Amino acid sequence: MRRRTLLSLLMAEAVAGHAGGAPTTLLYPLHDESRVLLWRYHEALIRQALQRSGASYQIAESAQPMTQSRVLRELADATGSLDLAWTMTSIEREALLQPVRVPVDRGLIGFRLAFVRPEHVDRWQSVRSLEDLRPYVAGQGLDWPDTEILRANGLTVRGASRYTALFDMLRLGRVDYFPRAAFEIDGEIASGMAAGLVVEPHVLLRYPAASYLFVRRDRPELAADLQRGLDAMVADGSFARLFQQHFGDLISRHRLLQRTRILLNNPLLPPQTPLHKAGYWLLVDG
Predict the structure, then answer these.
(1) Is 34 or 244 the better-scoring residue by pLDDT?
(2) pTM of the shown model
(3) 3.30.70.1150, 3.40.190.10, 3.10.180.10, 3.30.70.100: which CATH number matches 109-206?
(4) Fewer CB atoms near the end CB (10 Å): N or C, the chain?
């Protein structure tokens, strides 16, 4: 009887969240001080999408910071503490979690700039193709999808288990460059983690990729609500406007659309990725 009563309460809470009763609280990862721009954007996007969905939710951050691998474990576990998070998609991640297939970053996670040592900036002027890039060694996280993507394109990658160690590896000459998503660069400079390094000014690594909102497999109604809200924002232009408001200056300042583009294949990109929906993306490669 007690078990049946608990189940009834949980079902009632879910129904209330959709029927205009007490809002359901959704927990997402605590913000990272080095990525405040990205966190503010995602928080604003989630709030607007949930509002547009017509369902009743409120959102809150987790009490403790989490690594990316911890976030994924929490979402994969039916008893995990998180309800949603944003991260780069892959075939493996979509098998474990429920994706909301609207690229919340408009594909910007596939626009990669590189930290390099100041004395090596000039040599990058001659890097015009994938073949030119192959002699150089990249630094990446051991469990990052980007590591597999770079290696699949014939590039040499040296991995590290700690994110901050990659800056030291570059400073010490153990790697030649450290590719970062374009929206990560400024926060890492401001935090001091990239002290003694510079952003390479000529080259953009570009591969098709998407960051999605992911929810637990047992929350299909939440995924449907987020999908409905995001699609409404795409349709009326508010999705593109919010993105431009947060990232327009970055795109212009780092000349993302004017750099020498080196296009890479992404073998981890799931076949269901909606590349055909032009309104979802910042740039569609022809």
Answers:
(1) 244
(2) 0.83
(3) 3.40.190.10
(4) C
